[in-house]
Amino acid sequence: MFKKFAAGCLALLLPMTMMGCSSNSAASDTQSGSDASASGDGYSISMLLKTTAAEYWQYVIAGANAYTKEHPEVKVDISGPPSATSYDEWMNSLTTMLGNDDIDAFILSPLQSDSAAHQISGETRPIITVDTDIDAPEVLSFVGTGNLEAATSGAKEAAKKASELGWKDITCVALTGAQGDSTHEARVAGFQEGIKNQGGTYLETQYCDAVADRAATAMEGIIQKYPEGVAVIMCTNDDMGAAAKRIINDSGNENFKNTVVCGFDGTLSGCTSIRDGGMIMTIAQNAYDMGYLSFETAVKALEGEKVDRFVDSGSGCITQDNVDEYIDKLNGYLASVKE
Question: Are 307 and 30 in contact (CB under 8 A)?
Answer without folding.
Answer: yes
